[in-house]
Design goal:
The protein is 77% helix and 0% strand. The chain is built from five helices and no strands. Helix 1 runs antiparallel to helix 4 and helix 2 packs across helix 3. The longest helix has 21 residues.
Length: 99
């Protein structure tokens, strides 16, 4: 499922931006280090200010697991993505969905 891969890339960028910004890198330095477009980094910096590291790391880890399950065929692609979304959105609202 292409959507999972896109989200995986976005969360990877968010994590990298968060870590580099915490180390004191400027927006331009982050763009250069990651070889990403400066505007994309600017938007990511706005997002990471509102998101705790652990929340980003948990989502990224879940997306990696989902992508692995999809590629190995251990679960239907659509079902794997839906389960990830249910679990992740449930965690964000304080509800835990078992899965």
């Amino acid at each position: 499922m292409r959507l999972n891969a896109l989200m995986l890339g976005q969360f990877r960028l968010l994590l990298q931006v968060k870590l580099l910004a915490k180390k004191g890198y400027s927006q331009g330095d982050i763009a250069g280090t990651l070889k990403a477009h400066p505007y994309r980094v600017k938007l990511a910096m706005r997002q990471v200010d509102r998101l705790p590291y652990q929340q980003l790391a948990t989502a990224y880890s879940g997306l990696v697991d989902t992508e692995t399950a999809m590629k190995t065929g251990t679960i239907d692609k659509a079902l794997a993505f839906e389960l990830f979304m249910l679990k992740y959105t449930g965690q964000q609202s304080g509800k835990h969905v078992r899965g």
